[in-house]
Structures are given as structure tokens and as C-alpha cells.
């Protein structure tokens, strides 16, 4: 069975601080994808990044960076110099290919509040 | 290029009633998935449609059913509504193919059952 754990329910930071959102996953498959989505109050899930299980390179996109470590089954997300617009709920998701079909498991989300 | 469109935005229903939610996928996407997101929780997979057929299903009762039309749009039907069905229902579309996976989500329909 697969599982995604986002232990941080809510985080508050002051604007311009750095913040890291944790994601720990469980799967027995060797091939899988990991995702991060942002959900603003409007409700739409906004795709941030996709990483496959064979690519452990860290990635940086502007103020966002991701640290993928298979040894600890973690895929953490860091926002540098946070801004008020970063306030949202962030979800980590695990996607696997099960019999040709995609099986998607989301974490419970981390609510980030950036205080001006 | 329009993304995923869902209607209605909000809906209030009485326990025991039936409801139909609608989704138009992003242009070029032929696969539609539905998710239920309870307050404070992550989205839970309901089912996925491709070529007008249900390809896979999550752990939801038969009260939840769906349909996909030739133009790839989709409907989610829920019968005999329970208070626990109150949630945000998200539709996501994607192109078929494991390697090209990438979901585009709509803004959802917020269903309240009273």
C-alpha cells in the first residue's frame, strides 16, 4: 500500500523567511512519481513540480526548491524569501502505475500562512 | 487555452437527494478523474474515465457514478446523499499515457448536504 505523510498541519512564517514543507512517502514500487500542488483559497490545485523515482537531482525554480531523497523516502519543498502570495495549502502526492493505470495518493496537506 | 471547467461552483442539497456535477477537461486532454476533498483533508480519488469508460475506481460506494461523453467532458453523479458527502469535488484532466502524466485541476464544486 502507498501512503503520503505531511506531518506539518499548519506553518506560519513572517514574510521573507525561508520555510520547508516536509513530505514522506511509502511505496513498494520502484517506479513512481512525486508531485507538489498548491491550493489557494479559490480551491484549484496548481501543479508545482513532478519528479520521477529515478531522478534524485534536486531542483530549483525561482524561490522554490525541492529535495528528493530516496534513502529517507522524502520529497521536501522549500520556499525561499516567502511572500504573502505563497499563503495556501500545499499537497504532496504519490503516483504509481498499477496495472497500466495511475494510482494517486495525496497527503493531508500543509497550510502555510505568510504574515506580512 | 481554457483549463478545466467545473459547474456548478457551489451547490446545496438535502440528504437523500441526488446530484450531478459537470466537468469539461482542458483542451487536448482525454482522461478525466474525479476527487473528493473533505474539509482539511487531501483529495481522495473517486474514479477515472477514458474513452467513455470507467478505467479505475477508488474506495467509494456505488452511490457515486460517472459518465464521460464523446467530447471528453464528464459528469459525476451521487445518489442518496449523506451529510458526509459534503465536500469539495475536484475534476482533473490529463492526456492518456503514463509517461506524460500531468493533471490539470479545476476549481471544484463545493457540495453542501443539509
3D architecture notes:
The complex is a heterodimer of chains A (116) and B (114). Chain A is mainly beta and 116 residues long. Helix content of chain A is 0%, strand content 58%. Chain A contains no helices and twelve strands. In chain A, strands 2, 5, 6, 10, 11 and 12 form a six-stranded mixed sheet that branches. In chain A, strands 3-9-8-7 form a four-stranded antiparallel sheet, with no helix packed on it. Chain A has a two-stranded antiparallel sheet with strand order 1-4. The mean pLDDT of chain A is 92. The model of chain B has no long low-confidence stretch (mean pLDDT 92). Chain B is globular. With 114 residues, chain B is mainly beta. Chain B has no helices and eleven strands. In chain B, the strands form two sheets. In chain B, strands 2, 4, 5, 6, 9, 10 and 11 form a seven-stranded mixed sheet that branches. A four-stranded antiparallel sheet of chain B has the order 1-3-8-7, with no helix packed on it. Chains A and B meet through β6, β10 and β11 of A and β5, β9 and β10 of B.
Distance between the termini of chain B: 37 Å
Mean pLDDT of chain B: 92
Q: What structural category do the secondary elements of chain A indicate?
A: mainly beta
Q: What is the radius of gyration of chain B?
A: 13 Å
Number of strands of chain B: 11
User: Largest sheet of chain B at a glance?
Assistant: 7 strands, mixed
- Please state the CA-atom Rg of chain A, rounded to the nearest Å: 14 Å
Low-confidence region ranges of chain A: none
**Alpha-beta classification of chain B:** mainly beta
Helicity level of chain B: under 10%
Largest sheet of chain A: 6 strands, mixed
Shape of chain B: globular
Amino acid at each position: 500500500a502507498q501512503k503520503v505523510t505531511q506531518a506539518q498541519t499548519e506553518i506560519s512564517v513572517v514574510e521573507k523567511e525561508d520555510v520547508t514543507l516536509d513530505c514522506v512517502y511509502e511505496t513498494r514500487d520502484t517506479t513512481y512519481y512525486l508531485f507538489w500542488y498548491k491550493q489557494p483559497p479559490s480551491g484549484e490545485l496548481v501543479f508545482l513540480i513532478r519528479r520521477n523515482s529515478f531522478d534524485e537531482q534536486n531542483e530549483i525554480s525561482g524561490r522554490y526548491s525541492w529535495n528528493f531523497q530516496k534513502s529517507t523516502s522524502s520529497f521536501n519543498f522549500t520556499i525561499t524569501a516567502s511572500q504573502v502570495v505563497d499563503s495556501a495549502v500545499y499537497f504532496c502526492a504519490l503516483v504509481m502505475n498499477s496495472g497500466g493505470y495511475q494510482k494517486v495518493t495525496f497527503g493531508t496537506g500543509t497550510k502555510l500562512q505568510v504574515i506580512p | 487555452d481554457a483549463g478545466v471547467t467545473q459547474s456548478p461552483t457551489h451547490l446545496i442539497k438535502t440528504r437523500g437527494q441526488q446530484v450531478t456535477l459537470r466537468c469539461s477537461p482542458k483542451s487536448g486532454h482525454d482522461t478525466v478523474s474525479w476527487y473528493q476533498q473533505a474539509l482539511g483533508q487531501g483529495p481522495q480519488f473517486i474514479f477515472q474515465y477514458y474513452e467513455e469508460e470507467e478505467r479505475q475506481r477508488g474506495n467509494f460506494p456505488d452511490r457515486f457514478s460517472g459518465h464521460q461523453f464523446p467530447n471528453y467532458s464528464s459528469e459525476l453523479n451521487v445518489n442518496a446523499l449523506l451529510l458526509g458527502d459534503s465536500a469539495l469535488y475536484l475534476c482533473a484532466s490529463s492526456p492518456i499515457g503514463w509517461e506524460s502524466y500531468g493533471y490539470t485541476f479545476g476549481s471544484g464544486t463545493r457540495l453542501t448536504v443539509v
